[in-house]
Amino acid sequence: MFWNEKAECMNKEEKEKLQLKRLQETVKLAYENVEFYTKRFDEIGLKPEDIKTLKDIEKIPFTTKSDLREAYPLGLLAVPREEIVEVHASSGTTGKPTVTAYTQNDLDIWGECIARGLKMAGAEKEYIIQNAYGYGLFTGGFGIHHGGNRMGAITIPISAGNTQRQLDTMVDFQSDILTCTPSYAMYLGESREKAGIALEDINLKAGIHGAEMWTNEMRKRIEESLGIKTHNIYGLTEVMGPGVAQECEYQNGMHIQDDHFYPEIINSETGETLDYGEKGELVLTSLTKTGMPILRFRTKDLTSLIGEKCECGRTTVRMTRITGRSDDMLKIKGVMVFPSQIEKALLKVSGASPNYMIHVTRPDILDEVEVKVEATKELFSDEMKEMERVEKQIQASIRSETGLRVDVSIVEPESLPRSEGKAVRVIDERNFE
């Protein structure tokens, strides 16, 4: 049931004592070895010895993605370069990528965190893990791989893409666990059906999916199309990669590995720390990372924290499903909207598939929004009247969820682009100059 029961079921007093000890050690390491943090602390007159309680973490300035980009590539190292054994980086689609570096101890901890998540998904040492996250600078593939090795399971490093080979591998190797983005899992489910492969021909038991936002409606579609139980996984390059948090079998929030990462929720506007249950921006501090420690990193991910013990027996703090990113929110006709709200609305309508594209334009002075939604094969074979009826249903559902009137177009199955990595759902062509 547990990979590391002592760490995952620690009582509150023992955990807070451990967190404070590790926080103090990390702050000292960063202050004494990372010029960026030395300057930040000195500017406000803060010393490592001022961190006497966990509450004192609020005295530490935030670290942002732009701080990491300015330190590109290895300006935030806390150890000599010869101690670094692996480097990963974000995609860098909006400027310089953010880089993270690992000592061997960091990799061991990464593997430990992933192994805990694999166990949450029901994995055993004899299981076969089909790892369809991308290998390379992206942390997904290697993160799962390190965890599979730590567990001692068979890991197939198939990486993303080559869908026919993915399906052949599922059948030939009788893979037990599938790891990939949720949008690619959905595509694999569709491809399985199209290829005429019966659920009885594969052996998948669980999926571990992350790296992009997805709704409970999409979860249901994936579980039905692959015959599995799915588990949301969370992580980010800047802090470690996947494995910071993951769902257990109860799918009621993701367990944060809080002996290695200290979570806070803040008000994005004021920076004020919020209580358990209050929704805001997740801030993470690495407690054990030595290669490139990160203090109070603003993730931009919007969620809330659950402090109660889980039904599974774990006492780790949980984070609720991410509903959006503070920097991904769209302001349309004065209304704040997250793509996940539109996905949730359209998937409530029978006949709509989880493949969609949101196209935002401003041809004159007003925003216009078109949502293209792939029809299911059953709907597409129906009369035009039925498709028009479903379009109106989707429009009404989106308006009910967001308050927005949008144009909806039902398009042919498999006509929208597919992604083997993170799905691109929004095309915003407005000119804000």
CATH architecture descriptor of the largest domain? 3-Layer(aba) Sandwich
Enumerate how many helices there are, as a single number.
Answer: 12
The proportion of residues forming helix, as a percent range, comes to 25-40%
Cα Rg: 22 Å
List the strand order in the largest sheet: 4-3-5-6-7-8-9-14-13
Structural class: alpha/beta
Main beta sheet: 9 strands, mixed
State the CATH topology of the largest domain: Rossmann fold
Shape: globular
General description of the model:
The protein is of the alpha/beta class. It folds into two domains: 101-323, ANL, N-terminal domain (Rossmann fold); 330-428, 2-Layer Sandwich (GMP Synthetase, Chain A, domain 3), CATH 3.30.300. 32% of the residues lie in helices and 23% in strands. It has helices at residues 5-8, 12-33, 35-44, 65-70, 104-120, 139-151, 163-173, 182-194, 216-226, 339-346, 377-380, 384-402; strands at residues 86-89, 99-102, 128-131, 154-156, 177-180, 206-209, 229-236, 241-247, 254-256, 261-266, 280-286, 297-303, 305-306, 318-319, 324-325, 330-332, 335-337, 352-361, 368-375, 407-411, 426-428. A nine-stranded mixed beta sheet has the order 4-3-5-6-7-8-9-14-13, with helices on both faces. It has a four-stranded antiparallel beta sheet with strand order 10-11-12-15. Helix 2 packs across helix 3 (35-44) and helix 8 (182-194) runs parallel beside helix 9. The mean pLDDT is 92.
